[in-house]
Amino acid sequence: MLAWTIYISFLGALALLLLPKGSTTAARLLALAAAIAGFAIALVAFLQHRTGELITITRVPWIPSLGIEYHLAADGISLCLVLLTGVIAITGVLFSWNIEQRTKEFFAFYLLLIGSVYGVFLSYDLFLLFVFYEIVIIPKYFLIAIWGSTRREYGAMKLALYSFVGSAMVLIGLIAAYVAAGAKTMSLGSLAGFHFSPHFQMAMFPLVFVGFAILAGLWPFHTWAPTGHVAAPTAASMLLAGVVMKLGAYGCLRVAMTLFPLGLSSWGFHVFGLGSWRDVFALLAIIGIIYGAMVALVQKDFKFVIGYSSVSHMGFILLGLMTLNQIGLSGTVVQMVSHGILAGLLFAVVGRMVYDRTHTRDLALLGPMNLNRAIPFAAVTFVIAGMASMGLPGFSGFVAEMMILIGAWRAFPLIAVCAGVGIVMGVVYVWRAMQKAFFVEDGSAPAQSPLPPITLPERLGAAILIGSSIAVGLYPQMLLKIITPALNSPLFDGLREGGWR
Amino acid sequence: MMITSYSQLLYLAMPEVIVVLTALLALASDLLFFRNQQLRVRFGVAAGLASTGCAVAIGRLIYSSAQANVFDGMLVANPLTQLVQVALLVLTIVTLLLCVDSTFTEHVGEFVLLILLATTGMMFLVGTQDILVIFISLELLSLSLYALTAFDKGTPQSSEAALKYFLFGGVCSAFLLFGFSLLYGLSGSTHLTQIALALHGSTLNPLIVIAVVCTVIGFGFKVAAVPFHFWAPDVYERAPIPAAAFVASASKVASFFIFFQIMLLGFAPVEGSAAWMRIADGWVPLVTAVAIGSMLLGNLVAIVQTSARRLLAYSAVAHAGYMLLALVAHTQQSLAALLYYVITYGLATLGIFGVIGVVEKQTGSDRLTNFNGLSRRAPVLSACFFVFILSLAGIPPLAGFFGKFYLFVSALNIVGGPHGLLWLVIFAIATSAISLYYYLQVLKRAFVASPPAGATDIQTPALTQAVIILLAASVMLLGCAPHLLLSWIDAAFRATGL
């Protein structure tokens, strides 16, 4: 049943292309229906899921001579992310209700992207996973290049090339693992159970990990993220930050770390105090956290603030992966969901509620518009989203970053302290952007013609996202009770034996 | 099995005979009966006849899966050669259908005749293991292609391209013949396995080196690999569309197959190795160097092209580089991967040429700017274009992706473990990342850029559109279900006993 999340999205995309010319409303409704159907299926699967189980959805031979199977399966981790994708898909459609130019194509590319994202999260065969992972690149490119804003063609191409280089690195690693195992199978479970030589793992782990982490915004390969986010139309930025970056993080956890667990173990020597790839990536992650926060602090463009904040928050995810302990890894998955929701919300406020009305994102110009009075709903939403993203208790961000910090504290105390500094800086840049964009009190009345009011789809979208964030924040057990057993499943055996504490 | 009766020989060469007879029939009917008809009718009749002939030949090949080896390898028929011949005939049929709406020439019969003669040359080329027959059929193929390139007598550039092609081709053929003569001198035989036996145990003496180099030059020219690629951009750009499409697809299939056979069978004792840190002298390092050059130069130069056809030519150079990886690995699996790759590549290339042909006819040239806003002017056509280009770029789930994947898997899957050619595979994948840039640039024009002011919808002739859609569907189908072709290739290998 869960496989239909993929098929419905693809069929929806196809149906959109077949709609007659000019049927804009029909296109929107169709896209919304497809997104809701996908979400409903994901929700049912999520509710029916018994903890610790790996549901095999479909498993049929695909290319028998190479042992490649069409194998879809879901465990707790993938279910959480599938659910996140469903939420973002619905709200993304709601926030793009105002797309008038080439609407059909927009939603067709959109659903193609959503469908492949579902595909990546549900694939259990690595070849299949890679197929979906690469399909993602193409709609992403066109969504940004056609419907984007500032330097859209540059941003789109940069994003496409970074993703493609990343996936090329992944492809090398997957082919090498496939051939080295010699077992004629691309199944994740079988390959993860194969004991590759430590030397091979040491060489392949960084390749595959970085390949995926490029998409997760690993410093110094993050530069596609701010430009891409800024150039993208609202729905595409929401998807990019909300789920596409999670694809990278998911790949790191699900593929790189399970296939080559020994790649994380000690080299046996130290360079600049770094003794393993684990130390290296933890260091890069913390640099990403601090660097993203510092750069966000000085941006003039509202959307760049959010773009860099994504880099900073994704740093927490990568740091969480490197903690290699139960709490850190669970926190990472929660953070993936949490950041997906919050980044989506922030981009929706900046891109849709503010930019589409004021046609500027310059913080200095936004201030005098007295937006807190002109569009109070946007101001309130941003305050809530900002609070949540700073890590206010009660919202999802708090739980997730707390868990990662505890995990990091056990693994690398010094880095955990730096991450704490990063959180504090997060408060500062959100505060600064909030104050500059919405709450400049210069006494002058709004001069321009009144901005169009916030529409119903926007209110709905914002309510859904805020609601989900609060739900996860108040009752994280909802996710944790299926994430933790998934992390203890046989798939992660290699990781547990190779240094898990 | 030894057959010496000529009737049996003719029986074995029946598909080729059918194609030749069809060619003559098409020529005769066009000159005798349809001379005064409209051009479209003439092309329709001639192409229809020729396609029917090819289809009959395909039927003949499929239903008489005979295994034979006549005159010590002069004419070889086994399931594998039959598979390649069927693929060649299919590509020829598509080419013929694409030329139905052409208007570049009045000499319809001759054009179709030349295409079929080239096809005959290719069929003999893949169905032999004798260097003499290889050379003769290669010449038949090449001479037909030179003439096809020059067929657009309305533009001097067409002749210029053909002359360049001819001069280059002549020199490279001379090299090839020289190399073959050395091989004969060294071994006293023209049969590939005999040559390999004679070379066995001999060291890499200068004569063998010259023979190897000359052979690589001769075939490097045919497959447009660096540094023998100079003809490709001109031919691709200036030849009539069907001729260019034919050069880019079918002739690639035949050339790669026989190149692989010669290197694998004939030069087996002097193969050397290109494995990391274990490079040994032989033809493998030489082919590796050619492959690296092709991948690098093809991809880099394609970036700056402004003409769609030239861009395609340089991308073809790059693809030749990838396909040469199969020769570097030279295993049975890599031959299967090569066949899959080159056949699906041929389909996608034919499709692109079909699209370029339509656009060129309506806008006057193949400059990339003429593709601006294509998705709004011809939605169906540009959707197919999208599929072809992304297949060449190697984006799943299209055939080009699986081709690359299988090729790289087979390159790693060699004796001595996956570490040997890993460096080369990494290089290939890295250069293919470059290629995405220029492919996306083309698609950007079609989908992102706005159409020029006052542009009207582009009308696609019904037959051309149907062929293009069929090609796009097959590229998608072979990408989603590669085993359709793969199982056929594997079955051919098993039946051939390789």
Would you count the extended β strands of chain A for me? 4
Q: Helical segment tally of chain A?
A: 22
Q: What is the beta-strand fraction of chain B?
A: under 5%
Mean pLDDT metric of chain B: 89
Give the low-pLDDT segments of chain A: none
How many beta-strand elements of chain B?
A: 2
What share of residues of chain A is helical? over 70%
Across the major sheet of chain A, the strand order is: 1-2
Helix content of chain B: over 70%
The parts of chain B where pLDDT drops under 50 for at least 5 residues are: none
Structural commentary:
- The complex is a heterodimer of chains A (501) and B (498).
- Chain A is mainly alpha-helical.
- Chain A has one domain (4-489).
- Helices cover 73% and strands 5% of the residues of chain A.
- Chain A has helices spanning 4-18, 24-48, 76-95, 103-122, 126-135, 137-147, 152-181, 188-193, 198-215, 224-231, 234-259, 277-297, 302-323, 326-358, 363-366, 371-374, 376-390, 396-411, 413-438, 456-474, 477-487, 493-497; strands at residues 55-63, 68-74, 266-271, 274-276.
- Chain A is globular.
- Chain B has helices at 6-12, 14-32, 39-63, 79-98, 108-126, 131-149, 156-187, 192-199, 206-222, 231-238, 241-248, 250-266, 283-303, 308-329, 332-363, 374-377, 379-393, 399-412, 422-447, 462-480, 483-496, and strands at residues 68-70, 75-77.
- Helix content of chain B is 73%, strand content 1%.
- Chain B is built from 21 helices and 2 strands.
- Chain B has a domain at 330-498.
- Chain B is globular.
Topology at a glance:
The complex is a heterodimer of chains A (501) and B (498).
Chain A: H1 4-18, H2 24-48, E1 55-63, E2 68-74, H3 76-95, H4 103-122, H5 126-135, H6 137-147, H7 152-181, H8 188-193, H9 198-215, H10 224-231, H11 234-259, E3 266-271, E4 274-276, H12 277-297, H13 302-323, H14 326-358, H15 363-366, H16 371-374, H17 376-390, H18 396-411, H19 413-438, H20 456-474, H21 477-487, H22 493-497
Antiparallel strand pairs in A: 1-2, 3-4
Helix pairs in contact in A: 1-2, 1-4, 2-3, 2-4, 3-4, 3-11, 3-14, 3-20, 4-5, 4-6, 4-11, 5-7, 6-7, 7-9, 7-10, 9-11, 10-11, 10-13, 11-13, 11-14, 12-13, 12-19, 13-14, 13-18, 13-19, 14-17, 14-18, 14-20, 14-21, 17-19, 17-20, 18-19, 18-20
Chain B: H1 6-12, H2 14-32, H3 39-63, E1 68-70, E2 75-77, H4 79-98, H5 108-126, H6 131-149, H7 156-187, H8 192-199, H9 206-222, H10 231-238, H11 241-248, H12 250-266, H13 283-303, H14 308-329, H15 332-363, H16 374-377, H17 379-393, H18 399-412, H19 422-447, H20 462-480, H21 483-496
Antiparallel strand pairs in B: 1-2
Helix pairs in contact in B: 2-3, 2-5, 3-4, 3-5, 4-5, 4-11, 4-12, 4-15, 5-6, 5-12, 6-7, 7-8, 7-9, 7-10, 9-13, 10-11, 10-14, 11-15, 12-14, 12-15, 13-14, 13-19, 14-15, 14-18, 14-19, 15-17, 15-18, 15-20, 15-21, 17-19, 17-20, 18-20
